[in-house]
Amino acid sequence: MTSESASTRIINTFFTRARLNWDDAIALLHNASTISTSIHPPQSNPSMYASTTPIYGAPRPIPSDGSRSPNLSAASLGFEVEHVSRPPSAMGMNRPPEPVLDPEFMYREHVSKLIGAKSRPCSVSGRIPLDPSHLVLFFRSKTGITHSLDFPIDIDYNTPPALDVLIAACKRTQTPGYDTQLYESFYYPPNLPLTPSLEIANHPILDAIRKMLFPTLAVGHHLTVRREKLDVLLAGSRMPPQLRAMNNDGRVATLSITLPVRFRGGSLVIRDSEGRQERLDTAAPTSDLEWTAFTESAIMRMSISYAVFAKSFGATTALTPDPLFTPNQPFLDLFPPVLQMSRGRKIGFLLSHDYDVDPSVVLAESLVPLLRGGDSMLYQAFKLFKLAPMLHWTAGGYIWPVDRPVELSNDDPSAAQRAANGSPLPPIHGAFSNSSPFGYSPHMPGALPAQTTADMLRLRVEESGAVPLATAEVNLLTDWRAQESPLVGKARVHFVEAGLLEKLVVNVVLVAYVH
Questions:
Q1: Which of 18, 162, 271, 377 has the smallest number of Cβ neighbours within 10 A?
Q2: Each residue of 120-138: pLDDT tens digit?
Q3: CB within 8 Å of 210: residues ≥ 6 apart
């Protein structure tokens, strides 16, 4: 912009909109020249950028009759600049410091979650090693015609006509409080005949459910099943939560069997009575049948059987190459943080259930096929992570080697020490003897100082081959958030103390080295 062009445009504007005389036009030209100079400053005078001299003349008073126009002021034509208190690059430097989490606290939190999940399993799942082509579903439509549906099914490749008939016979699932358009799912009417070609009674699924979810079920109680319904979820549909109040038929658990129909996505969300939630993300291939059992909820039930195999609930052996069940993915997801923070250590977990064995006769490792509940889940999880878990006997901060039982001698452990020191032998004593309970009289010449029962027992434990946990470099992990004493399995070893029969309480600890 030049001074002439700016002056001419301003004069034309004000002559059109206001009645100006020539004196006003001359004053306006002077101001326009000043404006043009300030917009295009000469290169020889850079100090004009920092000049504090006002670039406009002093405003003249405005006549009340409106015959004269006021001067243009800085408020109407000047540049408005907002000063930034600090450069943008420095604005992110003074962010509030993020809270620093204590690694030890995080480690204890992960251990607490893992032990809590082990102590209270609410679901168990597994796979049925069955050829899906041997599975056939027979059903009767509304017209009274019986159809057979062969498996496996892949609707992306081919849709069997019987599947269309089955879907047409289904009804929409009605759940109080949920929109059926949003939660669109279907179920086969229970009043129409529906029979699979295999029966669940021919498969030891109920044995696995009892071992895992009901390990303390009283002797004489058995688990039975009753087929409830077949649920069908089409592409894009979802099933609303099945409330516990809807299943007031006295059930204690629900068994859900996923048929060999190829699908993508979809998760089975399980919530127990205490609000804990497990999310099972599965994408069943056409060659597998999956079963899931969980307490106090209901999704789907169907009876399926398979050829009987010798299965174990604990370690795998030559006769049982595969376990009957595998830990759920939500339980396995709790392991990586604990294992990552335990690298280079030996970690140990106390087992939760009692096992009717004599620790003085059998090794702790012999309990592996007998493990149940969370103990079995914990053992199998370590196996899946390619670790080598081992069972040991432990008591009072001591641990026995994996190849040693708890053999406590009934002799006075200090007798050999007294004989080596030349001390007289103690008198024979028994349950009804009046002699000192530790086999010597405090008034005997050369008698050893009195020892506590704990000291005597510690000597016996060490003589049996046990070593302190610190010496064995075993870090025993416990739930630091537990409000009460944790549930720990116990076994008992008999020994004689002061002529009386006593029982030493020992526990089983699962030890694994995290490499």
A1: 18
A2: 777 888 877 778 888 899 9
A3: 217, 223
The amino acid sitting at 36 is: S
CA distance 456 to 438: 9
Instruction: Let me know: does 258 contact 282? Beta carbons within 8 Å.
Output: yes
Residue reference for tokens 């509030």: 96
Q: To 5 degrees, how large is the angle CA 443–CA 444–CA 450?
A: 70
Q: How many CB atoms lie within 10 A of CB 334?
A: 20
Instruction: Give me 304's structure tokens.
Output: 């399926």
DSSP 8-state assignment for residue 48: G
- Cα gap 31→291, rounded to integer Å: 90
Q: Are 435 and 447 a contacting pair, CB within 8 Å? A: no
Split at pLDDT 50, 70, 90, the class of 421 is low
Helix (H) or strand (E) holding 38, with range, is: helix 22-39
Bridge partners of 59? none
Is the separation of the CB atoms in 203 and 257 below 8 Å? no
Strand-pair partners of 510: 349, 391
Query: DSSP labels for 277-329?
Result: EEEEE----TT-EEEEEEES---------------BSSS--SS--SBS-B--H
pLDDT tens by residue, 20-60: 444 444 443 344 433 333 334 344 443 333 334 443 444 44
Q: Secondary structure of 118-138 in the HEC alphabet?
A: HHCCCEEEEEECCCHHHCEEE
Distances (CA, A) of 73 to 2, 22, 77, 382: 20, 20, 7, 82
Peptide bond into 189 cis (omega under 30): no
> Pairing state of beta strands 474-476 and 346-350?
parallel
Count the alpha carbons within 13 Å of 483 in the hemisphere toward its beta carbon.
0
Q: Which contacts of 433-437 are long-range, i.e. CB under 8 A and separated by 24 or more positions?
A: 433/499, 437/498, 437/499
Hey, what are 6's tokens? 């700016």
Residue by residue, DSSP assigns 199-245 as -GGGSTHHHHHHHHH-TTPPTT----------EE--TT--PPP--GG
Instruction: Give the residue with greater pLDDT, 490 vs 184.
Output: 490
